[in-house]
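Could you help me review a protein record that somebody else here produced? Here is the record exactly as it was handed to me:
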Amino acid sequence: MTRGKSIIGVLVLSALAVGVVGAASASASVSGMTAVACQEVAVNAGPFLTSECSTSVTGEGDFDTVAVPKDTKVVSTGENPKLEATVALAKVIVTCELATGTGKVTNTTVGEEMKGHGTEAVITYSGCHVRRVSTPGETCKISNGGTITTNKLTTTTLANHEVSVQPETGEVFAEFEILNEGTECKIPKSTVKVTGTIIGIANTEKHNHLTFEPATNGTKLKANGGTATYTGTEVGYMDEGPGEPHGAPVGLTTAAEFSPPPTGGLRSVTCQPVDGGSGTGDFATDHCETPSVEKGDFETAPLPNGANVLSTGENPRFSGTIALTKVIVECQKSNSTGSVSNVTVGEELRVHRKETELHYTGCYARRNIISPEKEKCKVEDVATASTGTILTQPLTSTSGIEHKVVVKPEAETEIAKFEVLNEAFPERECKLPKATVTITGEVTGIANTEKHAHLTFETATNGSALKMNGGAANYTATEVSYVDEEGLHGNTVGMTTVS
Protein backbone atom coordinates (compact mmCIF):
# COMPACT_ATOMS: atom_id res chain seq x y z
CA MET A 1 0.00 0.00 0.00
CA THR A 2 1.37 3.37 -1.01
CA ARG A 3 1.80 5.74 1.92
CA GLY A 4 3.83 8.47 0.24
CA LYS A 5 2.14 11.41 -1.45
CA SER A 6 -0.06 9.96 -4.21
CA ILE A 7 -1.45 12.56 -6.59
CA ILE A 8 -4.87 11.22 -7.51
CA GLY A 9 -6.94 12.19 -10.43
CA VAL A 10 -10.47 11.33 -11.17
CA LEU A 11 -10.77 9.69 -7.79
CA VAL A 12 -11.28 6.32 -9.45
CA LEU A 13 -7.70 5.26 -9.80
CA SER A 14 -7.68 2.27 -7.50
CA ALA A 15 -11.19 1.39 -8.56
CA LEU A 16 -9.97 0.83 -12.07
CA ALA A 17 -7.42 -1.71 -10.99
CA VAL A 18 -9.83 -3.18 -8.48
CA GLY A 19 -12.55 -3.48 -11.05
CA VAL A 20 -10.63 -5.16 -13.82
CA VAL A 21 -8.23 -7.45 -12.01
CA GLY A 22 -10.57 -10.12 -10.80
CA ALA A 23 -12.21 -13.39 -11.73
CA ALA A 24 -12.21 -15.57 -14.81
CA SER A 25 -14.56 -18.12 -16.28
CA ALA A 26 -13.79 -21.80 -16.51
CA SER A 27 -12.40 -21.75 -20.05
CA ALA A 28 -10.46 -19.40 -22.30
CA SER A 29 -12.08 -17.38 -25.07
CA VAL A 30 -10.43 -16.85 -28.42
CA SER A 31 -9.91 -13.12 -27.86
CA GLY A 32 -10.30 -10.34 -25.31
CA MET A 33 -8.77 -9.91 -21.86
CA THR A 34 -8.82 -12.34 -18.94
CA ALA A 35 -8.25 -11.59 -15.26
CA VAL A 36 -5.47 -13.77 -13.83
CA ALA A 37 -3.49 -14.29 -10.64
CA CYS A 38 0.20 -15.10 -10.41
CA GLN A 39 0.46 -18.48 -8.68
CA GLU A 40 3.10 -21.05 -7.86
CA VAL A 41 3.07 -24.13 -10.10
CA ALA A 42 5.18 -27.29 -10.27
CA VAL A 43 8.96 -26.76 -10.31
CA ASN A 44 10.20 -25.57 -13.74
CA ALA A 45 6.65 -25.86 -15.14
CA GLY A 46 5.87 -22.15 -15.44
CA PRO A 47 6.95 -19.30 -17.75
CA PHE A 48 7.83 -16.86 -14.92
CA LEU A 49 10.69 -16.76 -12.43
CA THR A 50 9.11 -14.55 -9.78
CA SER A 51 5.84 -14.35 -7.84
CA GLU A 52 5.05 -11.10 -9.68
CA CYS A 53 4.86 -12.98 -13.04
CA SER A 54 6.82 -10.18 -14.68
CA THR A 55 10.04 -12.01 -15.68
CA SER A 56 9.33 -14.43 -18.52
CA VAL A 57 11.46 -17.55 -19.13
CA THR A 58 10.95 -20.75 -21.09
CA GLY A 59 10.30 -23.90 -19.10
CA GLU A 60 12.37 -22.83 -16.10
CA GLY A 61 10.00 -20.87 -13.89
CA ASP A 62 7.93 -21.88 -10.88
CA PHE A 63 5.08 -19.37 -11.48
CA ASP A 64 2.30 -18.90 -14.03
CA THR A 65 -0.72 -16.68 -14.59
CA VAL A 66 -3.86 -18.65 -13.75
CA ALA A 67 -7.45 -17.54 -14.29
CA VAL A 68 -8.99 -16.56 -10.96
CA PRO A 69 -12.41 -17.71 -9.68
CA LYS A 70 -15.67 -15.88 -10.23
CA ASP A 71 -16.36 -12.86 -8.00
CA THR A 72 -12.80 -12.77 -6.72
CA LYS A 73 -12.28 -10.00 -4.17
CA VAL A 74 -9.36 -7.76 -5.04
CA VAL A 75 -7.52 -4.72 -3.70
CA SER A 76 -5.29 -2.20 -5.42
CA THR A 77 -2.65 0.41 -4.67
CA GLY A 78 -1.32 3.27 -6.78
CA GLU A 79 1.74 5.48 -7.01
CA ASN A 80 1.73 9.10 -8.18
CA PRO A 81 -1.71 9.31 -9.81
CA LYS A 82 -2.64 12.84 -10.90
CA LEU A 83 -5.84 14.66 -11.90
CA GLU A 84 -5.67 17.98 -13.63
CA ALA A 85 -8.91 19.90 -14.11
CA THR A 86 -10.37 23.39 -14.09
CA VAL A 87 -12.17 24.59 -10.93
CA ALA A 88 -13.38 28.18 -10.48
CA LEU A 89 -11.56 29.22 -13.68
CA ALA A 90 -8.23 27.88 -12.34
CA LYS A 91 -6.32 24.78 -13.45
CA VAL A 92 -5.80 22.61 -10.34
CA ILE A 93 -4.22 19.35 -9.18
CA VAL A 94 -5.79 17.11 -6.52
CA THR A 95 -3.24 15.31 -4.30
CA CYS A 96 -3.74 12.63 -1.60
CA GLU A 97 -1.40 10.69 0.68
CA LEU A 98 -3.24 7.35 0.59
CA ALA A 99 -5.70 5.57 -1.70
CA THR A 100 -7.23 2.18 -0.87
CA GLY A 101 -9.63 0.25 -3.09
CA THR A 102 -11.72 -2.91 -2.97
CA GLY A 103 -14.06 -4.61 -5.42
CA LYS A 104 -15.18 -7.74 -7.23
CA VAL A 105 -14.80 -8.98 -10.80
CA THR A 106 -16.36 -11.63 -13.01
CA ASN A 107 -15.14 -12.43 -16.52
CA THR A 108 -17.92 -12.67 -19.04
CA THR A 109 -17.96 -13.92 -22.62
CA VAL A 110 -19.54 -11.71 -25.29
CA GLY A 111 -19.67 -13.76 -28.48
CA GLU A 112 -16.13 -15.12 -28.79
CA GLU A 113 -14.53 -12.37 -26.72
CA MET A 114 -13.67 -12.49 -23.01
CA LYS A 115 -14.34 -9.34 -21.00
CA GLY A 116 -13.41 -8.59 -17.41
CA HIS A 117 -16.40 -6.92 -15.72
CA GLY A 118 -15.83 -5.28 -12.34
CA THR A 119 -18.48 -4.28 -9.81
CA GLU A 120 -18.78 -2.78 -6.31
CA ALA A 121 -15.44 -0.98 -6.63
CA VAL A 122 -15.13 1.69 -3.92
CA ILE A 123 -12.10 3.89 -3.26
CA THR A 124 -11.31 5.87 -0.12
CA TYR A 125 -8.68 8.61 -0.37
CA SER A 126 -7.19 10.23 2.71
CA GLY A 127 -4.79 13.11 3.36
CA CYS A 128 -6.09 14.99 0.29
CA HIS A 129 -5.49 18.61 -0.69
CA VAL A 130 -5.61 20.81 -3.80
CA ARG A 131 -3.35 23.41 -5.41
CA ARG A 132 -3.29 25.48 -8.59
CA VAL A 133 -1.02 24.04 -11.30
CA SER A 134 0.87 27.32 -11.44
CA THR A 135 1.45 27.55 -7.66
CA PRO A 136 3.55 24.64 -6.26
CA GLY A 137 3.65 26.13 -2.74
CA GLU A 138 -0.13 26.35 -2.39
CA THR A 139 -2.13 23.86 -0.29
CA CYS A 140 -5.91 24.09 -0.01
CA LYS A 141 -7.83 21.82 2.34
CA ILE A 142 -10.58 19.43 1.26
CA SER A 143 -13.79 18.70 3.16
CA ASN A 144 -14.33 15.69 5.44
CA GLY A 145 -10.86 15.98 6.92
CA GLY A 146 -9.20 15.49 3.57
CA THR A 147 -11.00 12.19 2.88
CA ILE A 148 -12.80 11.45 -0.39
CA THR A 149 -14.86 8.30 -0.99
CA THR A 150 -16.11 7.34 -4.42
CA ASN A 151 -19.54 5.99 -5.30
CA LYS A 152 -19.66 2.36 -6.43
CA LEU A 153 -17.88 1.97 -9.75
CA THR A 154 -17.98 -0.58 -12.57
CA THR A 155 -15.30 -1.49 -15.13
CA THR A 156 -15.12 -3.38 -18.42
CA THR A 157 -12.24 -4.45 -20.65
CA LEU A 158 -12.34 -3.22 -24.26
CA ALA A 159 -10.29 -3.74 -27.43
CA ASN A 160 -6.55 -3.00 -27.62
CA HIS A 161 -6.02 -3.75 -23.92
CA GLU A 162 -8.22 -0.81 -22.95
CA VAL A 163 -10.23 -0.73 -19.71
CA SER A 164 -13.16 1.64 -19.13
CA VAL A 165 -14.50 2.73 -15.74
CA GLN A 166 -17.68 4.57 -14.80
CA PRO A 167 -20.18 4.81 -11.91
CA GLU A 168 -22.45 1.78 -11.43
CA THR A 169 -25.47 4.11 -11.31
CA GLY A 170 -25.79 7.71 -12.41
CA GLU A 171 -22.77 9.62 -13.66
CA VAL A 172 -20.92 10.83 -10.53
CA PHE A 173 -17.63 9.21 -9.51
CA ALA A 174 -17.18 11.35 -6.43
CA GLU A 175 -17.97 14.79 -5.03
CA PHE A 176 -15.97 16.92 -2.58
CA GLU A 177 -15.42 20.52 -1.48
CA ILE A 178 -12.36 22.75 -1.65
CA LEU A 179 -12.48 24.79 1.60
CA ASN A 180 -10.39 27.89 0.81
CA GLU A 181 -8.30 27.07 3.90
CA GLY A 182 -4.63 26.16 4.06
CA THR A 183 -1.18 27.39 3.12
CA GLU A 184 -1.34 30.35 0.70
CA CYS A 185 -4.71 29.06 -0.49
CA LYS A 186 -6.23 31.34 -3.15
CA ILE A 187 -8.77 28.91 -4.59
CA PRO A 188 -12.31 29.98 -3.60
CA LYS A 189 -14.53 27.56 -1.72
CA SER A 190 -15.88 25.26 -4.42
CA THR A 191 -17.76 21.99 -4.90
CA VAL A 192 -16.06 19.57 -7.30
CA LYS A 193 -18.08 16.86 -9.05
CA VAL A 194 -16.15 14.22 -11.06
CA THR A 195 -18.24 12.51 -13.77
CA GLY A 196 -18.05 10.57 -17.01
CA THR A 197 -15.84 7.66 -18.14
CA ILE A 198 -12.09 7.12 -18.19
CA ILE A 199 -9.92 4.67 -20.16
CA GLY A 200 -6.79 2.87 -18.90
CA ILE A 201 -4.36 0.46 -20.61
CA ALA A 202 -3.66 -3.02 -19.19
CA ASN A 203 0.03 -3.95 -19.11
CA THR A 204 0.18 -7.58 -20.29
CA GLU A 205 3.86 -8.00 -19.38
CA LYS A 206 3.55 -6.72 -15.82
CA HIS A 207 0.16 -8.37 -15.50
CA ASN A 208 -1.09 -6.53 -12.42
CA HIS A 209 -0.24 -3.03 -13.67
CA LEU A 210 -2.92 -0.76 -15.15
CA THR A 211 -1.73 2.56 -16.62
CA PHE A 212 -3.62 5.81 -17.25
CA GLU A 213 -2.23 8.63 -19.38
CA PRO A 214 -3.89 11.74 -20.85
CA ALA A 215 -3.20 10.46 -24.39
CA THR A 216 -5.33 7.34 -23.75
CA ASN A 217 -7.87 8.68 -21.21
CA GLY A 218 -10.50 9.35 -23.82
CA THR A 219 -12.54 12.56 -23.81
CA LYS A 220 -15.38 11.71 -21.41
CA LEU A 221 -13.75 12.41 -18.03
CA LYS A 222 -15.14 15.63 -16.57
CA ALA A 223 -14.75 17.80 -13.46
CA ASN A 224 -17.65 20.24 -13.00
CA GLY A 225 -18.49 19.64 -16.67
CA GLY A 226 -15.05 20.61 -17.97
CA THR A 227 -12.36 18.35 -19.41
CA ALA A 228 -10.12 16.56 -16.91
CA THR A 229 -6.96 14.50 -17.51
CA TYR A 230 -5.55 11.70 -15.45
CA THR A 231 -2.11 10.08 -15.08
CA GLY A 232 -1.25 7.07 -12.90
CA THR A 233 -0.39 3.38 -12.57
CA GLU A 234 -2.35 0.96 -10.41
CA VAL A 235 -1.24 -2.45 -9.08
CA GLY A 236 -3.78 -5.18 -8.19
CA TYR A 237 -3.68 -8.05 -5.68
CA MET A 238 -5.93 -10.70 -4.19
CA ASP A 239 -7.88 -9.43 -1.18
CA GLU A 240 -6.94 -11.59 1.82
CA GLY A 241 -9.38 -9.91 4.22
CA PRO A 242 -9.39 -6.96 6.66
CA GLY A 243 -6.06 -6.31 8.34
CA GLU A 244 -4.21 -8.88 6.21
CA PRO A 245 -1.35 -8.20 3.77
CA HIS A 246 -2.36 -8.26 0.13
CA GLY A 247 -2.26 -11.63 -1.61
CA ALA A 248 -1.02 -12.82 -5.00
CA PRO A 249 -0.67 -10.27 -7.81
CA VAL A 250 -3.83 -10.08 -9.93
CA GLY A 251 -4.03 -8.50 -13.37
CA LEU A 252 -5.02 -8.90 -17.01
CA THR A 253 -3.66 -10.87 -19.93
CA THR A 254 -4.90 -11.67 -23.41
CA ALA A 255 -7.40 -14.52 -23.45
CA ALA A 256 -5.09 -16.82 -25.41
CA GLU A 257 -2.22 -16.52 -22.89
CA PHE A 258 -3.65 -17.61 -19.58
CA SER A 259 -3.87 -21.07 -18.03
CA PRO A 260 -7.47 -22.23 -17.50
CA PRO A 261 -8.58 -22.48 -13.87
CA PRO A 262 -8.09 -25.87 -12.23
CA THR A 263 -10.99 -28.24 -12.81
CA GLY A 264 -10.11 -30.72 -10.08
CA GLY A 265 -7.98 -31.41 -7.05
CA LEU A 266 -7.99 -29.96 -3.55
CA ARG A 267 -7.76 -26.35 -2.35
CA SER A 268 -6.39 -25.23 1.02
CA VAL A 269 -9.03 -23.24 2.93
CA THR A 270 -9.59 -21.66 6.30
CA CYS A 271 -12.84 -21.37 8.28
CA GLN A 272 -13.76 -17.77 9.08
CA PRO A 273 -16.74 -15.59 10.00
CA VAL A 274 -18.69 -14.41 6.98
CA ASP A 275 -18.10 -10.88 5.67
CA GLY A 276 -21.78 -10.15 5.16
CA GLY A 277 -22.78 -10.59 8.79
CA SER A 278 -24.46 -13.42 10.65
CA GLY A 279 -26.81 -15.67 8.77
CA THR A 280 -25.09 -15.46 5.37
CA GLY A 281 -22.60 -18.36 5.67
CA ASP A 282 -22.68 -22.07 4.89
CA PHE A 283 -21.67 -23.45 8.30
CA ALA A 284 -22.94 -23.10 11.85
CA THR A 285 -19.62 -23.55 13.73
CA ASP A 286 -16.15 -22.01 13.55
CA HIS A 287 -14.69 -25.38 12.47
CA CYS A 288 -16.85 -25.47 9.30
CA GLU A 289 -17.64 -29.08 10.17
CA THR A 290 -21.38 -28.93 10.60
CA PRO A 291 -23.35 -29.95 7.47
CA SER A 292 -24.20 -26.97 5.29
CA VAL A 293 -26.95 -24.75 6.61
CA GLU A 294 -28.92 -21.92 5.04
CA LYS A 295 -28.13 -19.25 7.62
CA GLY A 296 -24.73 -20.01 9.11
CA ASP A 297 -22.21 -17.55 10.50
CA PHE A 298 -19.07 -19.16 9.00
CA GLU A 299 -17.68 -20.08 5.60
CA THR A 300 -14.53 -21.54 4.07
CA ALA A 301 -12.22 -19.13 2.24
CA PRO A 302 -9.00 -19.77 0.25
CA LEU A 303 -5.88 -19.74 2.41
CA PRO A 304 -3.20 -17.27 1.26
CA ASN A 305 -0.19 -18.96 -0.33
CA GLY A 306 2.70 -19.29 2.10
CA ALA A 307 0.44 -19.12 5.16
CA ASN A 308 1.95 -20.51 8.35
CA VAL A 309 -0.07 -23.29 9.94
CA LEU A 310 0.25 -25.53 12.96
CA SER A 311 -1.21 -29.00 13.47
CA THR A 312 -1.98 -31.14 16.49
CA GLY A 313 -2.83 -34.82 16.88
CA GLU A 314 -3.67 -37.23 19.69
CA ASN A 315 -2.49 -40.84 20.11
CA PRO A 316 -0.48 -41.17 16.87
CA ARG A 317 1.30 -44.50 16.46
CA PHE A 318 3.72 -46.39 14.24
CA SER A 319 3.68 -50.17 13.84
CA GLY A 320 6.32 -52.40 12.28
CA THR A 321 9.01 -54.95 13.09
CA ILE A 322 12.08 -54.53 15.31
CA ALA A 323 14.53 -57.42 15.81
CA LEU A 324 12.02 -59.92 14.36
CA THR A 325 9.34 -58.69 16.78
CA LYS A 326 6.19 -56.85 15.74
CA VAL A 327 5.97 -53.66 17.75
CA ILE A 328 3.84 -50.56 18.22
CA VAL A 329 5.30 -47.16 19.03
CA GLU A 330 2.61 -44.92 20.54
CA CYS A 331 2.70 -41.28 21.55
CA GLN A 332 0.29 -39.07 23.46
CA LYS A 333 0.46 -36.05 21.16
CA SER A 334 1.96 -34.65 17.98
CA ASN A 335 2.58 -31.01 17.11
CA SER A 336 3.95 -29.44 13.95
CA THR A 337 4.36 -26.18 12.10
CA GLY A 338 4.83 -25.47 8.40
CA SER A 339 3.75 -23.32 5.46
CA VAL A 340 0.96 -24.13 2.99
CA SER A 341 0.39 -23.06 -0.62
CA ASN A 342 -2.01 -23.97 -3.42
CA VAL A 343 -0.11 -24.93 -6.58
CA THR A 344 -1.44 -25.77 -10.04
CA VAL A 345 -0.27 -28.94 -11.79
CA GLY A 346 -1.82 -29.31 -15.23
CA GLU A 347 -5.58 -28.90 -14.73
CA GLU A 348 -5.48 -29.76 -11.02
CA LEU A 349 -5.00 -27.64 -7.95
CA ARG A 350 -2.89 -29.24 -5.24
CA VAL A 351 -2.16 -28.33 -1.63
CA HIS A 352 1.56 -28.25 -0.91
CA ARG A 353 2.93 -28.03 2.62
CA LYS A 354 6.64 -27.70 3.39
CA GLU A 355 9.07 -27.16 6.25
CA THR A 356 6.97 -29.40 8.49
CA GLU A 357 8.69 -30.87 11.55
CA LEU A 358 6.55 -33.20 13.64
CA HIS A 359 7.28 -33.29 17.36
CA TYR A 360 5.89 -36.37 19.12
CA THR A 361 5.71 -36.42 22.90
CA GLY A 362 4.73 -39.00 25.53
CA CYS A 363 6.09 -41.82 23.38
CA TYR A 364 6.79 -45.47 24.29
CA ALA A 365 7.15 -48.84 22.56
CA ARG A 366 5.55 -52.24 23.19
CA ARG A 367 5.09 -55.59 21.52
CA ASN A 368 1.88 -55.51 19.52
CA ILE A 369 0.49 -58.58 21.28
CA ILE A 370 1.03 -57.04 24.73
CA SER A 371 -1.25 -54.33 26.12
CA PRO A 372 0.15 -50.99 27.28
CA GLU A 373 -1.15 -51.78 30.76
CA LYS A 374 1.49 -54.52 30.90
CA GLU A 375 4.40 -53.36 28.73
CA LYS A 376 5.86 -49.90 28.10
CA CYS A 377 9.45 -49.50 26.91
CA LYS A 378 11.08 -46.10 26.94
CA VAL A 379 12.13 -44.47 23.66
CA GLU A 380 14.62 -41.68 23.03
CA ASP A 381 15.04 -39.39 20.05
CA VAL A 382 18.49 -39.86 18.53
CA ALA A 383 19.05 -36.21 17.54
CA THR A 384 17.96 -34.63 20.82
CA ALA A 385 18.60 -37.49 23.28
CA SER A 386 15.21 -36.65 24.79
CA THR A 387 13.34 -39.51 26.43
CA GLY A 388 9.73 -39.97 25.35
CA THR A 389 10.22 -37.68 22.35
CA ILE A 390 10.49 -38.31 18.61
CA LEU A 391 11.36 -35.45 16.24
CA THR A 392 11.06 -35.83 12.49
CA GLN A 393 13.24 -34.35 9.77
CA PRO A 394 11.64 -31.51 7.75
CA LEU A 395 8.76 -33.03 5.79
CA THR A 396 6.75 -32.01 2.73
CA SER A 397 3.23 -33.07 1.73
CA THR A 398 1.25 -32.79 -1.51
CA SER A 399 -2.40 -33.57 -2.19
CA GLY A 400 -3.34 -35.84 -5.10
CA ILE A 401 -6.29 -37.80 -6.44
CA GLU A 402 -9.10 -39.20 -4.28
CA HIS A 403 -8.32 -36.72 -1.49
CA LYS A 404 -4.98 -38.42 -0.84
CA VAL A 405 -2.10 -36.50 0.75
CA VAL A 406 1.44 -37.91 0.47
CA VAL A 407 3.93 -37.03 3.22
CA LYS A 408 7.67 -37.57 2.82
CA PRO A 409 11.02 -36.01 3.79
CA GLU A 410 12.00 -32.81 2.00
CA ALA A 411 15.52 -34.17 1.50
CA GLU A 412 16.70 -37.74 0.84
CA THR A 413 16.78 -38.61 4.53
CA GLU A 414 14.86 -40.68 7.02
CA ILE A 415 11.57 -39.42 8.41
CA ALA A 416 12.71 -40.00 12.01
CA LYS A 417 15.27 -41.95 14.05
CA PHE A 418 14.91 -43.00 17.70
CA GLU A 419 16.02 -45.70 20.10
CA VAL A 420 14.04 -48.28 22.07
CA LEU A 421 15.93 -48.36 25.38
CA ASN A 422 14.98 -51.73 26.93
CA GLU A 423 13.94 -49.74 30.01
CA ALA A 424 10.46 -50.14 31.43
CA PHE A 425 8.08 -47.47 32.71
CA PRO A 426 7.21 -47.72 36.43
CA GLU A 427 4.91 -50.68 37.13
CA ARG A 428 5.38 -51.97 33.58
CA GLU A 429 7.66 -54.50 31.96
CA CYS A 430 9.88 -54.19 28.89
CA LYS A 431 10.91 -57.29 26.93
CA LEU A 432 12.03 -55.51 23.79
CA PRO A 433 15.80 -55.45 23.15
CA LYS A 434 17.61 -52.13 22.84
CA ALA A 435 17.43 -51.10 19.20
CA THR A 436 17.76 -48.11 16.92
CA VAL A 437 14.64 -47.52 14.85
CA THR A 438 14.67 -45.65 11.53
CA ILE A 439 11.43 -44.59 9.82
CA THR A 440 11.84 -44.01 6.06
CA GLY A 441 9.83 -43.68 2.87
CA GLU A 442 6.49 -41.91 2.62
CA VAL A 443 2.98 -42.27 3.98
CA THR A 444 -0.42 -41.40 2.54
CA GLY A 445 -3.26 -39.76 4.46
CA ILE A 446 -6.82 -38.86 3.47
CA ALA A 447 -8.12 -35.28 3.62
CA ASN A 448 -11.56 -35.10 5.23
CA THR A 449 -13.50 -32.66 3.06
CA GLU A 450 -16.45 -32.54 5.47
CA LYS A 451 -14.37 -31.91 8.58
CA HIS A 452 -12.08 -29.64 6.61
CA ALA A 453 -9.30 -29.39 9.18
CA HIS A 454 -8.86 -33.17 9.64
CA LEU A 455 -6.18 -35.26 7.89
CA THR A 456 -6.50 -38.96 8.71
CA PHE A 457 -3.89 -41.73 8.42
CA GLU A 458 -5.08 -45.35 8.55
CA THR A 459 -3.42 -48.68 7.80
CA ALA A 460 -5.76 -49.36 4.86
CA THR A 461 -4.78 -46.14 3.07
CA ASN A 462 -1.12 -45.69 4.13
CA GLY A 463 0.27 -47.14 0.92
CA SER A 464 3.26 -49.49 0.92
CA ALA A 465 6.19 -47.06 0.94
CA LEU A 466 6.48 -46.47 4.71
CA LYS A 467 9.28 -48.48 6.27
CA MET A 468 10.56 -49.26 9.78
CA ASN A 469 14.18 -50.46 9.66
CA GLY A 470 13.58 -51.42 6.03
CA GLY A 471 10.50 -53.51 6.70
CA ALA A 472 6.84 -52.65 6.11
CA ALA A 473 5.35 -50.14 8.54
CA ASN A 474 2.04 -48.40 9.16
CA TYR A 475 1.02 -45.10 10.71
CA THR A 476 -2.27 -44.23 12.40
CA ALA A 477 -3.23 -40.68 13.37
CA THR A 478 -5.63 -37.79 12.84
CA GLU A 479 -4.16 -34.31 12.57
CA VAL A 480 -6.13 -31.06 12.95
CA SER A 481 -4.67 -27.87 11.48
CA TYR A 482 -5.03 -24.18 12.32
CA VAL A 483 -3.68 -20.82 11.20
CA ASP A 484 -0.48 -20.20 13.17
CA GLU A 485 -0.96 -16.96 15.10
CA GLU A 486 2.44 -16.62 16.77
CA GLY A 487 2.22 -20.12 18.20
CA LEU A 488 -1.48 -19.94 19.08
CA HIS A 489 -4.36 -21.63 17.27
CA GLY A 490 -6.16 -19.36 14.83
CA ASN A 491 -8.96 -20.31 12.45
CA THR A 492 -9.05 -23.94 11.37
CA VAL A 493 -7.23 -24.84 8.14
CA GLY A 494 -8.09 -27.73 5.87
CA MET A 495 -8.85 -28.82 2.33
CA THR A 496 -11.90 -28.86 0.12
CA THR A 497 -12.50 -30.05 -3.42
CA VAL A 498 -12.08 -27.64 -6.33
CA SER A 499 -15.46 -26.97 -7.92
